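Recall from the previous lesson that a structure prediction takes nothing but the amino acid sequence as input. Here we apply that procedure to Sporulation protein YabP from Candidatus Fusicatenibacter intestinigallinarum. The sequence below is the only information supplied.
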Amino acid sequence: MESGTAKPHEMRFLDRGQGKMTGVSDVYSFDDHEILLATTAGMLTIRGKELHVSRLCLEEGEVEVEGQIDSLVYSDSGRKNQKDKALIARLFR
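The prediction returns the following tokens.
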């Protein structure tokens, strides 16, 4: 997603069982227990049980998840690594 067209990061959850997020630029991994997303607010790890990505539209920056959501954890480390990779790629063009 281009930074000029990125939606703000927003989350809405219903009873810890369904969630909709905007401002998502990539899904790095997902399984029944963990979903790792890159958002405009940093890396987001969702942990729980029987997790499922029910809708994914990266063009719009939207993701919907279902399952038992136990925790949401933000980290800036992924954002820093992405910037580092971009800098290295520009240096070696």
